[in-house]
Amino acid sequence: MRERWFGATGRRVPELAVEGELDVTGALVLDTLDLQRMREAFDDGTPVVVKTASVEAVKAALARPEVACALVPPDRPDLLALDLTELTYG
């Protein structure tokens, strides 16, 4: 599984995780993409986590360099198996 930096914490986390299974303490957790808040958090070194529930939402969240992790709902484990390279580049 691919990993990303969790803000300026020095910790790496999976780019996709099931909501509730990853410690997101200290992170900015968003229900939708908010580019201004994401940029401010990123600039401050605060990890950014986005909740996603569809293929399109996962793709949009992980296309943003500010996002450390996209969280998927427990009832959508299929999203963990997405081929993000295929989604992005075809």
Give a structural overview.
By secondary structure, the chain is α/β, with parallel strands linked by helices. The protein has one domain. Helix content is 27%, strand content 24%. The protein contains three helices and six strands; from the N terminus they run E-E-E-E-H-E-H-E-H. A four-stranded parallel β-sheet has the order 3-6-5-4. The chain has a two-stranded antiparallel ribbon with strand order 1-2. Strand 4, helix 1 (35-44) and strand 5 form a beta-alpha-beta unit. It starts with a strand and ends with a helix. The mean pLDDT is 94.
Relevant terms:
24% strand; 27% helix; 90 residues; alpha/beta; 3 helices; 4-stranded parallel sheet; globular
